[in-house]
Amino acid sequence: MRMPEQISVLVVDDEPVIRTGLSVILDSQADITVAGTANDGEEAVEVCARLRPDVLVMDIRMPRRDGLWALGELGRRGLLGPGRSRALMLTTFDLDAYVDDALMAGASGFLLKNSSYEELAAAVRAAAAGHSALSPAVTQRIIQGHLDGRRQPSDHDLARLRDLTQREVDVLRLVRDGLSNAEIADRLVVSLHTVKTHVSRVLTKTGCQSRAQAAVLARNTLS
């Protein structure tokens, strides 16, 4: 029997019990292997540079250097994004600021620590495949945030959209609204391959490291 392709994971949390628990849960999955652990953001960056895991499962709130700092440093070092490591953030706090900051920094997903084992494993698989992985609670907050009002877009964020074609803007708007590639293809009456090409170009032109980051950028800049 052909074994499933292994997803290597780096678990980052300052609490030993949680770090060990997450590692045991993920290591019990046939297609997931915990390659290493770290206890804060600074160690996470160094271990990630050495191990190059497919996915980091990382807490946001940690002493010394937190998860948001680590995301920024990973991005600066070119360790985060398509073809490199993906970051899945874990926290007990489902606050809007944490969600936006993490996704804008390049996180592929955001889960609360009370998520089920199944949700955690599914999120790791989604992140490894390059998809967004958001808990229902977080997804609802992002949607509600868009309905209630956007952050004032910065000149820098607006400039990131400058090179997009009108069709790429249309695709980005649908990514923001949570549509899958297949749903976007149906909506725009184009092939799935065409949508994938548009999404790839949107990420490249805007400098976004994940679909989730592009969705937040669109929420803050597009009507």
Description:
It contains 11 helices and 6 strands. It is an alpha/beta fold and 223 residues long. The protein folds into 2 domains: 141 residues, Response regulator (Rossmann fold); 66 residues, Orthogonal Bundle (Arc Repressor Mutant, subunit A), CATH 1.10.10.10. A 6-stranded parallel β-sheet has the order 2-1-3-4-5-6, with helices on both faces. Helix 4 packs across helix 11. It starts with 6 loop residues before the first strand and ends with a helix. The mean pLDDT is 86.
Summarize this structure briefly.
The protein has helices at 16-27, 41-51, 67-76, 96-104, 117-128, 136-148, 155-159, 166-176, 181-188, 192-206, 211-221; strands at residues 7-12, 32-38, 55-59, 86-91, 109-112, 133-134.
Provide the fold topology.
Layout: E1 7-12, H1 16-27, E2 32-38, H2 41-51, E3 55-59, H3 67-76, E4 86-91, H4 96-104, E5 109-112, H5 117-128, E6 133-134, H6 136-148, H7 155-159, H8 166-176, H9 181-188, H10 192-206, H11 211-221
Helix pairs in contact: 2-3, 4-11, 8-10, 8-11, 9-10
Distance, first to last CA: 50 Å
Q: Would you count the extended β strands for me?
A: 6
The CATH superfamily of the largest domain is Response regulator
Could you give the order of strands across the largest sheet? Answer: 2-1-3-4-5-6
Modified residues (4-aspartylphosphate): 59
GO molecular function: DNA binding
Domain Response regulatory: 8-128
InterPro entries: CheY-like_superfamily (IPR011006), NreC/VraR/RcsB-like_REC (IPR058245), Sig_transdc_resp-reg_C-effctor (IPR016032), Sig_transdc_resp-reg_receiver (IPR001789), Tscrpt_reg_LuxR_C (IPR000792), WalR-like (IPR039420)
